[in-house]
Design a protein that fits this description.
mainly alpha, 116 residues
């Protein structure tokens, strides 16, 4: 029985260490705090998404902000639909930008529109 408990604890610790390492690595890439990423990871998992989905979303916002996408008109249009402009996001940290966008999307009443 002791061996089973010890083995379970070992697996749990390894899992926590892996998650912590993933969050730390992503934090370094995105400049979003580990704590915020942990919350976002939990929220994403509750809605059938993954941490990589969060990473992709943060990168896309950063690219839109920097005009790297080459099509800022499309980004402007998408932000306009959720009543946010790129100017609204200027000067915010990536974490604040992501949360501002997430809250705006959450306010969309139609689930199909919100998913789009």
């Amino acid at each position: 029985m002791g061996a089973a408990i010890t083995a379970s604890m070992g697996l749990m610790i390894r899992s926590f260490a892996k998650t912590g390492s993933e969050l730390n690595d992503l934090s370094l890439k995105t400049r979003v705090s580990v704590e915020a990423l942990a919350v976002l990871k939990y929220a994403a998992e509750q809605n059938g998404a993954t941490l990589s989905t969060i990473e992709m979303a943060i990168k896309r916002v950063s690219m839109a902000m920097a005009g790297v996408t080459g099509d800022t008109g499309q980004a402007d249009e998408a932000f306009e639909r959720i009543k946010i402009s790129l100017e609204d996001l200027q000067g915010l940290t990536p974490e604040q930008q992501f949360l501002k966008i997430a809250y705006a999307i959450a306010e969309i009443p139609n689930p199909m529109t919100r998913a789009a």
